[in-house]
Amino acid sequence: MPRLLLFIESNTSGTGRLFAQTARALGFEPVLISRQPGRYPYVAEDAIRSVEANTADLNVLRSLVRQLALSEGVAGITSSSEYFIATAARLAADFGLPGPDADAVAACRNKATQRRRLDEAGIDRVRHAEVTDAADAVQAAIGIGLPVVLKPVAGSGSVGVRLCATVAEVAAHARSLLADPTCGALLVEEAVKGDEYSVEIFHDTVIGVTRKHLGALPHFVEMGHDFPAPLASTVADRIAGFALAATRALGLTWGPLHVELRLGEDGPHLMEVNPRLAGGFIPELVRQATGIDLIQATVELAVGRTPEVTPTRQEHAAIRFLTPPDDGLWFATEGLEAARGAPFLRDLRLYRAYPLLIARRGDFQDRLGHALTSAPTLEGAVAAAELARRAIRFRVAANGTGTLATVA
């Protein structure tokens, strides 16, 4: 029986490590295939087997997988990285292994293609345009109507996503994004009003709806999540049905999906469909609240097993992210012990260590840590997460002066 579970690259948060640990717990040997395995500290810390290879070259990967399949047997191929899920899906299809429709995943990863297909299916008609230079971005923004959201057609974690209120802002941000040689095209979108939610789907079944809390505009940094979202059942059902219609229209019915949307006065409007598990530790919120382990379910599906995704409990979970108050040198942290005393606290962690030079980017990389809670009521979970968040203070030397401030 094949025992290797191949991971094409990894993400930089805790999920990559959890995927590997879960594979081991299920009796498989995780093997990370990466251009630079040393980028992932958990590989050495957990003694994960790794193979260095050019993960941007499908032919190189096919040859490597073929060798491993012949010598040891490959049970599955997947990835915890947004940027390599399409590659993993293609390889799985090439070798007759379980996985999503590779063409559907590749199309979905391009946000402009995704928008076009949803338009064709009549799912949601948020005005948008794909552009490849700053002048066209300006013309598109004028046609759509300011303000607009400007972002790369391929990306993750709110990287490069910005609300632009003026023509000058559109031009400047477009030039900034296109200066990156890996950014071939941009998406200009209508700015939709309303609270933001995401729908967590597994194998064409809705697991639940998450309430998302964003930081200050013009960026879209996710500062916290609540699961399940505090919605009337009729509203939650409407959102869930809308999300399922979108994923099915895109040909995505296998494995984990994360659908982001805004709920306006006229109903839900799609932000984007992601053919992967949610980030931002949402799978852990789901596990704490329902008992469903989406990481384990994804690993099991990748090796051909039938996972169990029936809730075993009904609780509520919340996470609040910790961010620095200023740019500058982070040289101390206060309040950790007080934060650890918050009720219902399940996980409190910092992702990095000081001293560290902080330069906020307006995306997920601004987050320095989180407080995660679960409780019998959503009010209890949220209050506890906020209590822990407010207790922590980062000392940052901004402009040569040491300042003390609570996290934003």
Condensed summary:
InterPro entries: ATP-dep_AA_Ligase (IPR052032), ATP-grasp (IPR011761), BL00235/CARNS1_N (IPR041472), CPAse_ATP-bd (IPR005479), LAL_C2 (IPR040570). By secondary structure, the protein is an alpha+beta fold.
Account of the 3D structure:
Keywords: ATP-binding, Ligase, Nucleotide-binding. One of its GO terms (molecular function) is metal ion binding. This is Biotin carboxylase. Residues 115-303 form the ATP-grasp domain. By secondary structure, this protein is α+β, with helices and mostly antiparallel strands. The protein folds into 4 domains: 4-99, Rossmann fold, CATH 3.40.50; 127-190, ATP-grasp fold, A domain (Dna Ligase, domain 1), CATH 3.30.1490.20; 194-313, D-amino Acid Aminotransferase, Chain A, domain 1 (2-Layer Sandwich), CATH 3.30.470; 315-407, 2-Layer Sandwich (D-amino Acid Aminotransferase, Chain A, domain 1). It contains 13 helices and 20 strands. The protein has helices spanning 15-25, 41-45, 58-71, 85-94, 102-109, 111-121, 134-144, 167-178, 233-249, 282-290, 294-302, 336-340, 378-391; strands at residues 4-8, 29-34, 49-52, 74-78, 128-131, 148-152, 162-164, 186-190, 195-202, 205-214, 222-227, 256-264, 267-274, 316-322, 328-334, 345-350, 356-358, 369-375, 393-398, 401-406. The protein has an 8-stranded antiparallel sheet, sandwiched between helices. Strands 3-2-1-4 form a 4-stranded parallel sheet, sandwiched between helices. Strands 5-8-6-7 form a 4-stranded antiparallel sheet, sandwiched between helices. Strand 12 and strand 13 form a beta hairpin. Helix 1 packs across helix 11, helix 4 runs antiparallel to helix 5 (102-109) and helix 7 packs antiparallel against helix 8 (167-178). The longest helix is centred in the middle third of the chain and has 17 residues, at 233-249. It is globular and about 60 Å long.
